[in-house]
Amino acid sequence: MKRSLFLAAVIAFSGLSFAQTEDEKRLSSILPAIIERSEAQYRRLENAAQKVRVDKDGSHRVPHGYIAAENKLDMRAIFWWTSGHFPGSLWYLYEATGKDEWKCRAIDWTDTQAPAADYTGNHDTGFRMFCPLGNGRRLSPGHRERYDALLVRSAATLCKRYHEGLGLLRSWGKIDDKKDFIVIPDNIMNLELLMWASKQKVPQASFFRKVALSHADVSMKNHFRVDGGTYHVLNYNQQTGRVREIYQGQGANCLTAWSRGQSWAIYGYTMMYRESGEKRYLDFACKLADFAINHPNMPADGIPYWDFGAPGEERDTSAASVMASGLLELARFVPGEKGKTYRAFAVRQLLSLASPEYLAKEGENGGFLLKHGVGHKPVGSEIDVPLDYGDYYFLEALLRFKR
Ligand code: GLY
């Protein structure tokens, strides 16, 4: 049989279909222009950041956002929770274009992150280290040995926040705080670092896996309502293991679902399924996704309000980009119409994000890609602004779509 005929037979037999929907065709056709715009923006952003990356005390800082009123980049320390996203985006631009200019920039900013491997101040080690070094090791084999050593060290650092009795990682607060034990759903994202480390030939490998699965399981039990909506902040009693208090955190109140938290959880449990093969995580990711995409307050363009309980208020493009990336992956694991629904929703979100309403014009937005992100509305911080992590997951989602 001729090779092409053989392939056609395999495709027909396996039920695989490469037919694109109209939305997918549209997204495919504008993809090169989005990447070109992203390159132009990030060239500008990186140039500006180079001038201010070293603080007066000699410490390094990374671009996080843009303060439009002062036409100034918002630079943050390498220990800030989002510091890995900018170098991670540089790796994605390298992946998207294959250009050495992006690889050089990515290596440069990734190197700066090294001291954060030992930072135990919160649970965000995965964001800080795995976004840059995890992508770096994947895309640059020459750096693998060094990045891998740093990533295993980072995994051990994160596990210092593990409480054996609770079976949970502590998200915020001091490692040995006897009174409070705070956990937020964002924590699930940091488990990717542990799942990766659990597959390395290191003595702690099985411990890393145990911690990741335990945290995912205990959170699955306590952190979500029966309808699949997430709480933001839980405080656990360290003696009884029970939830002591529920706080509003970055959400509108204790009874609503904070949109980015919901997106972290969709993405996180999908990743846990990919990494562990445990079906309970896949089923749970579907439940979380169904809550979001079928929610009566989800706008038609797929860009959620900053909280599912705050219709009519600001949208949050970062919640949309994290969700789109998570849904594209979830769709790969879910057969039939349900999987197609997740993919179609993610594609709709990406088309919206790529529209002039949300994607910055060249030269605007301080060089960042997405406009209209919301950081922490209840305390009045970062409302309707660009956010480094919004861009990171936008680029990731575009690459997942392309793949
Ligand atoms: N991890 C904090 C946030 O999503 O804002």
Q: Could you please describe the fold and organization of this structure?
A:
The structure is a single chain. The chain is mainly alpha-helical and 403 residues long. 52% of the residues lie in helices and 9% in strands. It contains 13 helices and 9 strands. The protein has helices at residues 3-14, 22-52, 85-97, 100-111, 125-139, 144-159, 187-197, 205-222, 259-276, 279-293, 317-333, 336-353, 388-402, and strands at 61-67, 72-77, 162-163, 168-169, 182-183, 233-236, 243-247, 373-376, 381-385. The strands form 4 sheets. A 3-stranded antiparallel beta sheet has the order 5-6-7, with no helix packed on it. It has a two-stranded antiparallel ribbon with strand order 1-2. Strands 3-4 form a two-stranded antiparallel sheet. Strand 8 (373-376) and strand 9 (381-385) form a beta hairpin. The longest helix has 31 residues, at 22-52. The radius of gyration is 21 Å and the shape is globular. Residues 1-16 have low confidence and may be disordered. Bound molecules: glycine. Glycine is lined by residues 81, 186, 250, 260, 375.
What layout of secondary structure does this protein have?
Layout: H1 3-14, H2 22-52, E1 61-67, E2 72-77, H3 85-97, H4 100-111, H5 125-139, H6 144-159, E3 162-163, E4 168-169, E5 182-183, H7 187-197, H8 205-222, E6 233-236, E7 243-247, H9 259-276, H10 279-293, H11 317-333, H12 336-353, E8 373-376, E9 381-385, H13 388-402
Antiparallel strand pairs: 1-2, 3-4, 5-6, 6-7, 8-9
Helix pairs in contact: 2-3, 2-12, 3-4, 3-5, 3-13, 5-6, 5-7, 7-8, 7-9, 9-10, 9-11, 10-11, 11-12, 11-13
The structure holds glycine.
Glycine binds next to loops.
